[in-house]
Amino acid sequence: MIDLDYLEYLEGFLTDNRKENFLKVLKNRTNHFTVVVEDVFQMHNASAVMRSCEVFGVQNMNVIEQRFGKRIDKQIAMGAQKWVDITPFDSVNNCIDTLKSKGYQIIATTPHTNDCDLEDFDFSKPSALCFGTEKEGLSEEIMQKADGFLKIPMVGFTESLNISVSAAIILQNLTNRLRNSDISWQLTEAQILEKRLDWARKSIKDIKRIEVRYFEKN
Fold this sequence. Notes:
Layout: H1 4-11, H2 16-26, E1 33-38, H3 43-55, E2 60-64, H4 74-77, H5 80-83, E3 85-89, H6 92-101, E4 105-109, E5 115-117, E6 127-131, H7 140-145, E7 148-151, H8 163-179, H9 189-203, H10 207-217
Parallel strand pairs: 1-2, 1-6, 2-3, 4-6, 4-7, 5-7
């Protein structure tokens, strides 16, 4: 449970404009969709996907690092890592099992015999949208565990798009359709309070000293 007095105390260090921006952004945040990136060799691509999550209001991103060590490319992400929740996993099984336990259907974004065009995709169920490596695509593990397959229709000679471009196209389409639907897609009040506290802490430079002062008084 969020300590509302503590939240009020921290937000006292923020400008009114920043607090208003937090509320405005949080109104458009969703957990209805989450994103999974698997073993993306080029880190700037994973960082660009994170940036798309932030821009289109997807609050959570999951990173499977089964083969490559990773770090967030801060220049590409352009601060998105402060506002998007990143969950790392060391295996496909851990990631997929965790997301399924939270009620997500697993959607592999890849051409497949049973795939669905983006415009025809039924987004009514909470969905984990999975994106694979630049050259190899998604692993056979994810393909076998997927509940559905989604593709971007293409009419040119080129048969694939860069992962960050694919993610941006899919997220823009699905989040726009979601916000224009009757689905209950927004964060709960408890989740909004949690993010207000998290973002307030990340916005205060000397947060450790300020927290010590607060807890000594209380």
